[in-house]
Design the sequence.
């Protein structure tokens, strides 16, 4: 197993639970500073819970508990000897895109700068150039440049999801969490987003939850396989798909036609 | 066979009972409105609405009364809105789960307080202890207390109806709780906030007991020149005229004033109704 | 920062009910010390001499019971009709009508009661005077009818269709479905609606004040609902302005206020306890 010092996230003996119901136990992982890491596993295996642990988005859920240590760039994000953790700041560094594009009922333009404006990361005069850049990056610019001030909810599902990417990227995150971002999209939008994910993976750690094994195989360098409440196996994508060492992984992979 | 007959008879009886009750209820309530319109419509001329009253309401119009009612009501809304919004936001965004139910119990208790008791309390506390006397400001504060629960509950319902994914979208961008409130929670519950405000205003507009000896004098005043002067309102004007009127013109005036009051109340509650059904956020 | 501002608003709103209660308790202290139990059991109220609250308590209870007797069949009957037996469009119309009519101000009911209902009651029951417990109760019953109806309808409508389908699948007729499948589940909500309506009737001031006859005496015989009487709220409405915040008279009025507060709060909290879901903005 890899154990590089150049790791963005390191999880040591992490246990996640809701009240007394354990979700994942004994999680030990490290996630590289560059590249795409996919989290796969049967539904209900805790993929999303694990992902949302990394930016502490589970905190809002009642009775969520996380023990062990989760390090982001060497710093613990749950417990800290010196004082409280600045969770909003942590989340600013870690962008996230959800399964369903959740846009605010306002214009396209305002959706892109939604975080930017509130967090006051950049002067207002830069906004229009940032909007153009990020929309270019998600290859949405040509489609919407003439209607930036129209309601975002008029866009197609695929366009909305790319807009959600733009909104996250506008805040210049240094890591990215993706929760099945293409699960409800048409093939064309999926293609555009997969290209984007690969491009982003060369610059920052991208962690992708997906139930499509072919997508995991196509996009990622590392794969984490969750099953029955723990990390069953994790490692390089080629090793994993070529000769999985665990029986459960074999069964799971065999059950899916690639 | 007999059992089947009895079942059918029971069914018929229930239908008849329910039908009769519905007809009686609707007739009663509609006839109240109809009667008010029939009695008040003749009195409610432009002159009547736009002229100040003369000789203790026996002559002249109800201009000052209309404005007085609006002054009290809008003042109460103005004081109550920030309090209600703050309370609802604190309850939903900061308060520990197990304390929510307890805190709501106190809000329900406040909602149940008979309005006359707000009058007694306000008379003493605002009028005497704080030295505001019988005044517009006393009335505003009393009504603001009174409509607070209506507004809190309405705003709270709207906030709780915001889908979790909107919150998460904001949080995932790295917003603090305060930024989230300003950027997501308040804009997304705007319809509920306006609805609550209008329902509160409707309630304040119809209220008589809480203000009749704390904010208003029955006659002799026009509009207040300062916030510590008394006002005159439609509600108390009706109360006065209905108890003392002998002139037939004053009797017309009382129906006109009552119809006007009902129109004001209905404007606010219909407004709330429209906002609630139209301005739902696109979920 | 935001947290503290919102927290302050929250603290103010949550403590208001308790502050009013404390105000009433401390204000009624002198009368309890002077009169002890005889304040509750005394039947004589003459300012400056003796203060007995029993006639007012009795009047309040009687008026409220009559209001309940009127609003229960009408309100629940209409609710059943609206929820179970008419189409969705008719339902919407009836609901909107009721919700808007729930806002008709108490003073308007008072005016109508004074002009029409008192004479009608006098002539129909051959009384000397139509100002009596019965008139006040009748008026309050109609006044709380829209509240009782909409809240009961909410409760009935909230029963999942699954229960209706089950019952129908067993071969039950429409009325049997209502009685056996829907009603048991809606009962707590209907109960809550009634309690809430009743607590509103109990605290109503002006509508009662104008038609109850304002006589601080127990009716003779006790069940004589056609006798003039006094409720706590109407008593407070009549005399608060005279007592002007000083002397034992004022303390006695606050004592009455405390009794009313406790009666109403019991009803409100019972309503909450038995499963009323808290839709204050319709009440």
Sequence:
């Amino acid at each position: 197993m890899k154990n590089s010092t150049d790791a963005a996230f390191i999880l040591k003996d992490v246990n996640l639970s809701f009240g007394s119901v354990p979700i994942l136990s004994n999680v030990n992982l490290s996630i590289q500073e560059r590249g795409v890491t996919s989290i796969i596993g049967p539904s209900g295996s805790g993929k999303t819970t694990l992902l949302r642990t990394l930016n502490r988005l589970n905190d809002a859920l009642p009775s969520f508990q996380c023990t062990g240590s989760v390090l982001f760039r060497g710093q613990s994000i749950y417990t800290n000897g010196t004082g409280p953790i600045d969770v909003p700041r942590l989340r600013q560094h870690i962008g996230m895109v959800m399964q369903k594009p959740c846009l605010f009922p306002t214009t396209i333009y305002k959706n892109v700068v939604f975080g930017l404006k509130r967090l006051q990361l950049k002067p207002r005069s830069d906004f229009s150039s940032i909007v153009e850049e990020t929309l270019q990056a998600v290859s949405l610019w040509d489609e919407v440049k003439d209607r930036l001030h129209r309601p975002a909810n008029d866009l197609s599902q695929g366009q909305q999801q790319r807009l959600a990417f733009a909104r996250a990227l506008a805040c210049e995150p240094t890591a990215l969490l993706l929760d099945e971002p293409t699960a409800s999209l048409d093939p064309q939008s999926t293609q555009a987003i997969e290209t984007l994910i690969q491009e982003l993976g060369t610059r920052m750690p991208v962690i992708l939850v997906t139930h499509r094994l072919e997508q995991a195989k196509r996009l990622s360098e590392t794969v984490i396989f969750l099953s029955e409440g723990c990390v069953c196996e994790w490692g390089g994508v080629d090793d994993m798909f070529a000769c999985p060492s665990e029986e459960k992984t074999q069964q799971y992979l065999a059950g899916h036609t690639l | 066979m007999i059992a089947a007959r009895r079942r059918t008879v029971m069914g018929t009886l229930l239908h008849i009972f329910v039908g009769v009750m519905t007809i009686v209820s609707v007739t009663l309530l509609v006839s109240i409105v109809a009667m008010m319109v029939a009695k008040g419509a003749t009195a409610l001329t432009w002159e009547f609405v736009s002229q100040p009253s003369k000789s203790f309401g026996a002559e002249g119009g109800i201009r000052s009364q209309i404005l007085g009612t609006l002054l009290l009501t809008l003042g109460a809304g103005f004081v109550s809105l920030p309090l209600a919004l703050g309370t609802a936001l604190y309850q939903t965004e900061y308060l520990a789960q197990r304390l929510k139910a307890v805190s709501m119990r106190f809000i329900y208790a406040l909602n149940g307080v008979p309005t006359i008791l707000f009058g007694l309390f306000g008379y003493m506390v605002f009028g005497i202890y704080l030295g505001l006397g019988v005044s517009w400001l006393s009335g505003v504060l009393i009504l603001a207390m009174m409509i607070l629960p209506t507004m809190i509950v309405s705003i709270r319902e709207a906030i709780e109806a915001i889908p979790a994914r909107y919150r998460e979208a904001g949080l995932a961008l790295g917003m603090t709780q305060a930024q989230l409130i300003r950027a997501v929670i308040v804009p997304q519950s705007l319809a509920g906030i306006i609805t609550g405000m209008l329902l509160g205003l409707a309630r304040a507009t119809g209220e008589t007991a809480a203000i009749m000896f704390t904010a208003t004098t029955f006659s002799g005043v026009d509009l207040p020149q300062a916030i510590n002067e008394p006002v005159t309102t439609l509600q108390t004007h009706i109360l006065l005229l209905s108890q003392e009127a002998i002139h037939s013109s004053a009797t017309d005036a009382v129906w006109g004033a009552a119809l006007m009051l009902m129109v004001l109340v209905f404007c606010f509650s219909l407004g709330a109704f429209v906002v609630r059904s139209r301005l739902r956020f696109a979920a | 920062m935001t947290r503290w501002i919102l927290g302050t608003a929250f603290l103010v709103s949550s403590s208001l009910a308790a502050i009013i209660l404390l105000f009433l308790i401390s204000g009624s202290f002198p009368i309890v010390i002077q009169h002890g139990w005889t304040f509750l059991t005394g039947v004589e109220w003459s300012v400056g001499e003796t203060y007995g609250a029993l006639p007012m308590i009795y009047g309040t209870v009687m008026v409220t019971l009559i209001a309940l007797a009127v609003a229960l069949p009408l309100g629940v009957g209409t609710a059943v009709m609206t929820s179970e037996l008419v189409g969705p469009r008719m339902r919407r119309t009836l609901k909107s009508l009721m919700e808007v009519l729930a806002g008709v101000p108490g003073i308007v009911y008072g005016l109508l009661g004074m002009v029409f209902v008192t004479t009608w009651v006098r002539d129909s029951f051959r009384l000397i005077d139509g100002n009596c417990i019965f008139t006040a109760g009748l008026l309050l019953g109609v006044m709380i009818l829209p509240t009782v109806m909409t809240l009961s309808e909410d409760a009935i409508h909230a029963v999942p269709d699954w229960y209706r389908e089950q019952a129908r699948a067993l071969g039950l007729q429409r009325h049997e479905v209502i009685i056996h499948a829907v009603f048991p589940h809606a009962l707590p909500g209907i109960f809550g609606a009634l309690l809430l309506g009743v607590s509103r009737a109990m605290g109503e001031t002006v509508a009662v004040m104008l038609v109850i006859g304002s006589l601080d005496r127990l009716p003779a015989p006790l069940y004589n609902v056609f006798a003039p009487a006094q409720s706590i709220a109407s008593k407070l409405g009549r005399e608060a302005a005279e007592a002007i915040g000083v002397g034992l008279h004022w303390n006695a009025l606050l004592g009455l206020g405390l009794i009313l507060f406790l009666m109403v709060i019991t009803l409100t909290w019972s309503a909450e306890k038995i499963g009323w879901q808290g839709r204050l903005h319709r009440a």
Observations:
- The first strand of chain A starts at residue 7 and ends at 18.
